[in-house]
Protein 1
Amino acid sequence: MIRIAVLASGGGTNLQALLDACAAGRVDGRVAVVLSNVPGAGALDRARAAGAAVELLPSRGVADREAYDRAVLERLRPHAPDLVCLAGWMRLLGPAFLAAHGPLPSTRGCPRVMNVHPALLPAFPGLHVQQAALDYGARFSGCTVHFVDAGTDTGPVIVQAVVPVLQDDDARALAARILVQEHRIYPQAVQWFAEGRLSLEGRRVRVAGAAAAEGALVQPAS
Amino acid sequence: MIRIAVLASGGGTNLQALLDACAAGRVDGRVAVVLSNVPGAGALDRARAAGAAVELLPSRGVADREAYDRAVLERLRPHAPDLVCLAGWMRLLGPAFLAAHGPLPSTRGCPRVMNVHPALLPAFPGLHVQQAALDYGARFSGCTVHFVDAGTDTGPVIVQAVVPVLQDDDARALAARILVQEHRIYPQAVQWFAEGRLSLEGRRVRVAGAAAAEGALVQPAS
């Protein structure tokens, strides 16, 4: 059973997917602590409802990113997380935070911070990505669970899922379709980590024991 | 019946898909001429076998791109193409060529040059894209038929298809899987053009008469 820390800035639906997967035994782990930088974030209510520890560390107006990162580390430390999951976490994490959760022998080269992004990276990194996909005229988008590095949505890909972009989509409709897939693939990625099946070769993530097309990716739903 | 000019530098399998689709009546058009910049290109043999006119205009050592583009235009002009299809054409086309095949009232804002690219644009433009997708660790790739603008693989997307990237893929295996989809979607895009169903809004290509998810995209094969 791994101990998971979740960092969330928003409503927390991906946090909820992780909480539900742990409760249902689909993830061999437990959300030990949820930290938010936004007072009143829905994620905090979800954490409390599930009996997870809650840490609030407001970031508004905080200019010293390194000091903030150190404060996050201090709040997480007592909970001894094996894995940190970003779930709608709207701040970049600096090198000190990432170094503190870097690869261990037991993680076979894999860092210990994951994120989910609502696009098929490397397409559409950053913010407002559904509108970007629509404006580009992309026929497909999706979501990506990846290890976190110092860049914005640049880390090694663990799993992706594809959804179609429909002709009459707006950003809200596309976001909702993608979110369904985020809730599928994020617990899947965490479970692979918990099972010790992930390893890193260059920036390619291998999933041990997976069939060629099974496990290493999630096929489109439709 | 539209008249199609195909520009090809290589073996010409996408040309063959267009020739076959025209012969089978899946495209309401005819390949009037095939122009290659590479002596001995397989595309030329395929064109001759199908009874299309053939133009060879070697580009090796040609430094004046504008002059070369003008020469291409002159070779195509007698064949009066309604649409120019790039199929493994390894040269950028300049503004004079693109202006000569710009939008007409009858094409509802759509330019008259198309290309097929072996990746899910905007991911992996340019060359060596299958290796780039593998090195990135992408779980999906695919192909894109798009209108051509002055950039490299930046024009408006007409249709895309997705394929999985398998854990043990090399660039050759991935390229072969993608090529199957290229041969499906390129004739489809040309047929939509021939039927007058395509229009351009900003950089979004609309497909008239298509259901929300039908026509506007090709679902993954598996």
Protein 2
Amino acid sequence: MTLKKGGLTRAVESEGSWQLDRIVTELRDIRARWRGAQQRQTECGAREFPSRDALRDIAEALCAALFPMRLGPSDLHQESEDFFIGYTLDAALNGLLHQVRLELRYDARRANTPQTEVDALARAIVAEFALALPELRALLDTDVLAAYQGDPAARSVDEVLLCYPGVIAVIHHRIAHRLYALGAPLVARIIAEAAHSATGIDIHPGAQIGAGFFIDHGTGVVIGETAVIGERVRLYQAVTLGAKRFPTDEEGTLQKGLPRHPVVEDDVVIYAGATILGRVTIGRGSTIGGNVWLTRSVPAGSHITQASSQHTSVLPTELAAS
Amino acid sequence: MTLKKGGLTRAVESEGSWQLDRIVTELRDIRARWRGAQQRQTECGAREFPSRDALRDIAEALCAALFPMRLGPSDLHQESEDFFIGYTLDAALNGLLHQVRLELRYDARRANTPQTEVDALARAIVAEFALALPELRALLDTDVLAAYQGDPAARSVDEVLLCYPGVIAVIHHRIAHRLYALGAPLVARIIAEAAHSATGIDIHPGAQIGAGFFIDHGTGVVIGETAVIGERVRLYQAVTLGAKRFPTDEEGTLQKGLPRHPVVEDDVVIYAGATILGRVTIGRGSTIGGNVWLTRSVPAGSHITQASSQHTSVLPTELAAS
Amino acid sequence: MTLKKGGLTRAVESEGSWQLDRIVTELRDIRARWRGAQQRQTECGAREFPSRDALRDIAEALCAALFPMRLGPSDLHQESEDFFIGYTLDAALNGLLHQVRLELRYDARRANTPQTEVDALARAIVAEFALALPELRALLDTDVLAAYQGDPAARSVDEVLLCYPGVIAVIHHRIAHRLYALGAPLVARIIAEAAHSATGIDIHPGAQIGAGFFIDHGTGVVIGETAVIGERVRLYQAVTLGAKRFPTDEEGTLQKGLPRHPVVEDDVVIYAGATILGRVTIGRGSTIGGNVWLTRSVPAGSHITQASSQHTSVLPTELAAS
Amino acid sequence: MTLKKGGLTRAVESEGSWQLDRIVTELRDIRARWRGAQQRQTECGAREFPSRDALRDIAEALCAALFPMRLGPSDLHQESEDFFIGYTLDAALNGLLHQVRLELRYDARRANTPQTEVDALARAIVAEFALALPELRALLDTDVLAAYQGDPAARSVDEVLLCYPGVIAVIHHRIAHRLYALGAPLVARIIAEAAHSATGIDIHPGAQIGAGFFIDHGTGVVIGETAVIGERVRLYQAVTLGAKRFPTDEEGTLQKGLPRHPVVEDDVVIYAGATILGRVTIGRGSTIGGNVWLTRSVPAGSHITQASSQHTSVLPTELAAS
Amino acid sequence: MTLKKGGLTRAVESEGSWQLDRIVTELRDIRARWRGAQQRQTECGAREFPSRDALRDIAEALCAALFPMRLGPSDLHQESEDFFIGYTLDAALNGLLHQVRLELRYDARRANTPQTEVDALARAIVAEFALALPELRALLDTDVLAAYQGDPAARSVDEVLLCYPGVIAVIHHRIAHRLYALGAPLVARIIAEAAHSATGIDIHPGAQIGAGFFIDHGTGVVIGETAVIGERVRLYQAVTLGAKRFPTDEEGTLQKGLPRHPVVEDDVVIYAGATILGRVTIGRGSTIGGNVWLTRSVPAGSHITQASSQHTSVLPTELAAS
Amino acid sequence: MTLKKGGLTRAVESEGSWQLDRIVTELRDIRARWRGAQQRQTECGAREFPSRDALRDIAEALCAALFPMRLGPSDLHQESEDFFIGYTLDAALNGLLHQVRLELRYDARRANTPQTEVDALARAIVAEFALALPELRALLDTDVLAAYQGDPAARSVDEVLLCYPGVIAVIHHRIAHRLYALGAPLVARIIAEAAHSATGIDIHPGAQIGAGFFIDHGTGVVIGETAVIGERVRLYQAVTLGAKRFPTDEEGTLQKGLPRHPVVEDDVVIYAGATILGRVTIGRGSTIGGNVWLTRSVPAGSHITQASSQHTSVLPTELAAS
């Protein structure tokens, strides 16, 4: 064994210590430089930002409250179902209130909004979200049913709820989307990313998705912020509903918030690996084949396959991004 | 900062409370509706369904018992290897027995099978599974070796066992497949999904896979329920071995259980992103290139690349799904 | 319910026991066979291999020390930032020292290197790594900024740090790459796989990546060991920077360590699903379109789309692998 | 440093191993001997005995359900108090049911009672216990009030509930006593010992204690199985209400269950270190001084001090034990 | 086995349910009655009281910060000692601030003090406490030394710090006493009770104790609120320094805060089981024998034994309590 | 509410910071002073001392291995009893080896013993201890039987093992005593203190105790280092077997290791609160009454009560300590 000593020059000085003082000092200088460059006010002492771990736990608690006998604790009995839901919701909503408050305060610091106003808004957002939970559960029931009916291999709605990553992703999305719509986009995004990490399905919380939505397998699916999806739509793994982007010779300062992702109408099926880019419309009842690359609208009832799409849509200067 | 108050109308009434009673009641009504629609007998008090968390832990314990010095606890010594295996197996098998019993009882409720019969079957399934563990370990040794030999970057079989997501996915698959074959398909599916979440590799527990199987990188791989894979097969990331599905103008009620996924014979290599759909056969020793889209059988020794596949296989009315 | 009893023959003998003695004995025999086949010296009592769990925790601690107010504990205050960093680093570096020592000893056993020499080298590697942390943080600041500027949807650098899987993957890569370069490739690989599992982004720790690197969405990205990436490069999901591999009629014994992955020069953008294979060079400022399949070099300023790439690069005998 | 090697003779043989096989075998032989001597049927596979850890947690959950805003979780809000209680009770009662069942089955094995009968009894015991919880809380309120009024240093009833070990001991006692009375004496005893370990106060679950009971400081207090304590009684640390026992020249086979501990009537105060032995009666409103040794009854309104007690009660042949 | 069914009458109605609704309702009514009786304002939603668990952890963190290499984490190195202390203190002090705030707000509610004033006071108390930590450590060093010198069996100061419950009790007392003196008596009391539970030593946080204090064995020691103990005092197990209390024919409303516990001057030794009651003074350098009962002052240099004490101090009408 | 601001003077300067730098610096100075005073070599980086938490866990694991079906995990089955024991012992013995090594190295540092010699001794001690475990279990069986026979309230040997603090204390003592005898007195002491904290029973690991030993209730029992206890001895709560100590006008340098605690011969019973001091002998078969104070030997068959003891043994100049 030849010991590679190249590159280990500085460590020789250390003699059994890590030179922590030196490292800590250098890191402090770099942080100071960074904060200076970001015009960050450093006087604020405590961490002022929502927490990934907290929001992951809150999202799990909400899932458990929505589907107590399937996603709740394994020792739950129906006699205490409502007790469990009430207690779990209270804890989850208070936790969520804290996280939403952190997000709003973070924004408000730049805007000089008074803290009491911010806190009242946070409370209103979470209270409104809480009242929407029953609708949300009713909507999710249509998704579970769609998954059950969409996959002939599914043996029961319970299996679907427990085993299908697409269902987990959709539950998280519907929670996140509601929070996004109510004015907590960062909290929503963190919840969406928790689902992304667990399922490989990346749905931006801004995407609007109708009832009876089902994603099978799911790994690699990406759905963009302004996508609009109708009812009873079904996607397979690695489908992208993304944005087109133009070459760098343009101004480069894209306008935010403009609709830039596809509109997918009711009863559309999109097979694995298909990529649909830009504000195009996939007409009601269409079927998009696997690996299809599509950057134009198609009318209702279209059946698009790889071959047909390539002849018509790929132009040399067009580039795709989600 | 302009406070968005639109959509926060209902929350105004709440005045410092979450209106939990109202939410809990509405959720109860929706659950009752759902359970009514599913003809679910609600008299059963306790949760009657296998647990994801429990099965994930059981699968990990089985991995540790199969490869004690690599996947077992870091403080394990060879002197107590057998003690560790025996104790760990006992706990894992008893846990598994409980989960299999939950699955069988769930099915039996519809079929009015007496509980003693169901419990005896659960015990027989787990006992048989336990006796199969040595074969399973022997089989997995061929997979580990295949991974080691298949990747020139691998420095040791130990590295392969610890670092390769494909190996983790295959260990879980071989466990899940055995349980599937013995009659516990739901438990098997939950174990498969645990591996899917951790590795991005989605292998249905029904898939039959021969010795010496290796998946490199792995994210996005999907292997369907009736796929049959020979010995010494190698796959790369984002490979799909899926089903073809026909347009909706057909009857719509697909027959379950029919062979609908590819047969991949011995010594085949399938490169990243290739998609193979339907009950086609990839002949022994063939090589399928990256991104290839293939819906027909190819004879032994074929070398298929993207160009060659496209000219021959993509027909306008054919649609792909796994 | 018809009880499937086929295949449950052996279990009948068990009568309420799992026959643990038999299973443990058979597993021992199989392990002995395997160890024999691997010429493994079995006299060594304890586990002699780095631990995935330990390294995942160490990597998280390093992330927290590098970005204390974002990735550190949620109750951290700026007054104790340096205290937190110093203490966390000390614990993480001592843990890392232990893991690097395990790796080096494992290698040294074959090479008969004296243990004191090995331990001194382990210490030197970790000390050098520690001293590099400030540079590493400065480099990561450019990545965070690139992510913020590269995605018009990003609202703040803080959001980028907390929500973007690509950023998590890059932090882990820069840690892993440094350890790889200093001589701890196995420890580096385990850290890289932790990020792969969490994000679906698979970057080999050997890959060289310049400042200002950004991966958006990320699921399915694969970057190979000898890839070289310039400054300000941007990738989208499912991009592969892989190796080409030649058919099996060759000798089959590939030379390790040879450059076999792409060189991507400064300011290149590669859109989702693009696959670039072999030691080709993507010239400075080029844009590679979505789903493009590319196995040749392109000059600076190229704009490659799916159509243009397919006409020129796909040859029947060429096969792709990462 | 002189290494003491005497007594280390056997270990010399071990050479880096613990000789686990030998130790395990010897331990098995000794267990077999013990089980033989205890006429223990060894065919029963699983542990058939209540669990200390489980019962400690159950007792804590019951405390939390009885005093939710003080002994419940720190993030509890009044809006979800009832939800918390309902859910916590359900989990605790189901856990308790399991433990009571273990106790009854253990007894029943000797008595050959059918298991269904035993399980029905277990359920009846726990259901009855559950219905008694409101009375129990009302009784405990008198204890809390007594503690608050009995100690001029107490600032609030909340402080009393949170800080006084005597109050913790009494809550556990009232729970344990109820279970003892309903027919689960072993489960009751385990709960009592959990309080003993935490507070140093040892109250046998059989002891009958009236409302408004208060123990100050408490370490070393022992109250025997057949003690009867009236209302508004106050004890200090190291008080013993024990049994007298007679010398060994008697038959030695004491009759179980006979009243053998003191009766303490209403409004009695017993100061620190006092020892009262045998089935004597301390008349209503009496005061027993510190360190007093008392083995005779005293009429209502007595004031007993160390001096007075010693002149009258200590006889040479009398021996004390609790 | 005869099933005791007496007393199980109510449970018969339950039929597989716990009647949770009924129990929850009855408990709510009782709580309402209690809160009414306590004139408790029920409108306050959240728990407004310090937490035992939180304070136990805070006290442990302070112990670790005071003696990092002995009571800190076992993987601590001297290089990061100061980092550890700084970070641990910051977390502990912020936690303590929260608990002190809860105490002050609880008091303030009755007194209608504005919350900002209360919060400023909480911060001042904790800041002052923090600045006192170095003195506190210096004082504790004298206690450790006293323990080491006072017990010939002690082999090192490190053993004393790790093994002696008396030392653990004194560390907690000095922390609690400081908080008591600064105006957080409830927080102080909860910390004292944590030590009481772990060691059986019950020191009221109000007690004033000089340097070089040592308690050997310790179980059953009780030291009252207004006790004053000089320097270099040594106590053994079951020593009480309590209050005398007068019979009930008095008014019954004792004046709070009056000195009512002993003054023990410098260099006194009090052996096991001794009881000293009332505002008496034990003169400098005295020795009080085991089991001595003492309710009068003794001059400096006294040697009191059981016999001598009984002749002089026990009067028929005197009763002892701490 | 009058805000007490006295004593809060220093905190005024702090202005929202804890002045951590100042506190950390002052604490460092005090530690340096202390280490200087203790002639402590500060160059040693890591903590070099056994850990209370680790030893408490090790002792619990040993208890579980000795009584697997009662003190082991609640899901243990007899089929895997030996596997559990073997694995648990291996982990516990390796953990113990580490702790014993820490103790010996700590001692060796002063004595300049070479580390290899020290480590060999540590291994020999633990190996010898391991081989003694079967004898230890056999001995403990006599204790369990004694407890069962000694308390007419005990319903089964299982109840005794699970509920009696005296039994827990004796198991820990027999473990600790063996380690003490083999040369690990500090490790032994830490284990003894773990039992002391849990049970209130303080047995020095040096005490020699014969078979069939039983302590009932137990709180406050103290047994000194050189005590010698015969077979079938029974103690009740608050019994002290201590040392006499002489007044301070002597030289003050007591000789260590001299026998200074009582010898209690076979079949002795000592009732609650009795105190026996000095190297006296309690003759075989004697009975010592409650609260007896005894500082002289008594012949076999004595019956000592409080009255008889006081007339004969208390001399004015005699002082008691354990």
